[in-house]
Amino acid sequence: MSTLRPVLALLILWLWSPAAAAAEESNIESLQQITHLVKWGGVFTSVLVIIAVLIAMRFLHDSVASLSLRFPSRRLLLQKAATIVQFLVYIVTGISVVALSLRLQDNVLALIGGTVAVSVGFAIKDVVASFIAGIMIMIDRPFQVGDRVSFGGQYGDITAIGLRSVRLQTLDDNTVTIPNNKFLNEITANGNYGALDMQVVMDFYVGPDQDVRLANELVTEAAVSSRYVYLEKPVVVLINQVILESHVAIRLRLKAYVLDTRYEKAFETDVNLRVLEAFGAEGIAPPAILHRTWEHVQPAAILRSAG
Prior knowledge:
Elements: H1 4-15, H2 18-37, H3 40-70, H4 75-101, H5 106-123, H6 125-140, E1 148-151, E2 154-161, E3 165-170, E4 175-179, E5 188-190, E6 198-206, H7 212-224, E7 236-244, E8 247-258, H8 264-282, H9 299-306
Antiparallel strand pairs: 1-2, 1-5, 2-3, 3-4, 6-8, 7-8
Helix pairs in contact: 3-4, 7-8
């Protein structure tokens, strides 16, 4: 007990010291300043304003949904108008709540201005980066409008290049908007780079015991006879042996150019139909699991499949 008395005495002296009293007085003054800035009557009014705005927004959404059912052709226009109105209402409501709830003195305005400036700075960081990237894209020109590109898992035609974003129309007729700054750090594959024609690659598989030379001729003939082929550039068939689903197959990889990128899928369909019909007519079979012994393999068959 005797050892605790000096500690208690020091604690009492510290609590009643002038510095502690001054700190407590400063905290009280800060609290009084904060409470003085708040208009408590305006806070109650602000709550009523927020409730009224929420009810009005709910009514707006219900009205837009009802009108969209009655006028289906105007649905997108109604939804766009509702989005703009909602955005403006939220801005006006936020300004009104601040004006009703706070006494806008110089120090308060400075605090709000600083907060808004920091928030806007963070918000437009990506926008500024996309703007700079847009300028670099226009100078470096990795692609241009009309090119068929592959980027980030998306594949289609470039329809617009802006200062903030690039629009890409996929083959499924979806419009994809990509921020320009994405192109600075990721790889873009350009299929035609300003030209109308583009190389198209198609794979065909046959069994190792089939007539590979005949299959090569049929694939080449199917490509050069297509109405979509661009014959000013070479038609090539690469042949190699691959492991397909745990068994051996012969792959014939066709590389041909379509005369216009718009006909890429039509070209693929046309060539595939021709090859399937030709393979069926000549009896060329697809890969299959073969069960045979070395004694049953004919030397002529080995040479024919290897050739």
